[in-house]
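Reading a protein record of the kind used here takes only a little practice. These numbers are not coordinates but entries in a learned vocabulary of local backbone shapes. Here is one such record, which you should read through line by line.
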Amino acid sequence: MTKFSLLFIVCAINVGYAHADGTISTKKTSQAASVSSTDASRCTSDPCANTPTGEDQYVIDAREAAAYNKKVLEAGTDQQRWNQFRLYSDSKDPNRLKVPMILAIGLEMKLDPKKGDISIEKSGQKQVFKIDDAVGSGANTCPKYSVRILDALSTYAMIEKSCSISEYVPGKYHMGVDYYLYDMQTATLRSVWEGSSTEKVSPFPRPKPAPQVKKISNGYQLDWSATDPSNKQDGKINIHTKYVREKDHQTGKTELVCTDLTAAKGEEHGGACEGGILPLILNQMAQTQ
């Protein structure tokens, strides 16, 4: 889950939401982080003589991290919650498969790994998309993944999906990251960029910085320059795209249409706009909307 040892793996909380990312919890445990999990749990006496309370160090670290995470959930900003919590496809507890998107209005993101679905919902409203194959459904190149929110308002979000390195069939490896733009009005979740690596030993292909969109009239614009650490030949990413709501005159449905602002005339809907639109499973909107 993270590069940290058992000290932070045990920090997954049980206060109603998600797994803590772990990297944020180091504020209260930075001193202990320099000690290995084996050393921190090893005491020469019972109670432990190495700590003021007589407890093993990893127990103290876990309690402090859980208290910190609970504070973030209850009193932190939405941005702090997005940074702190991820949804993991191997989670068994349904309470750890949801995370607040906008806490003030009760908007949540939920993951159902048994179906491979992700939903964004609040009271009387629910939109569900297919984000992956169901867990355990054959030769899936991404058997274990995590999902987190990068940015959100009440009507849109930027969502990241990360696939840890896996040998999905003998001798074949995969790890990757996908970024999705969510638009509530058109019930759309579409890929804006994806990166992957098939090398067993390779930097994780998460670019820096992560993509950010800005709201424009009737849609969004993405002007993104980043570095891909896994691309040895050309690690530079430059994407300039616009996503505007347009009505399809044949179906009558309003769609989120992408334009590649750097493409030649006639080709502007290809190139950086080739990211797929995730299948919509359910679109249940509140009667007031």
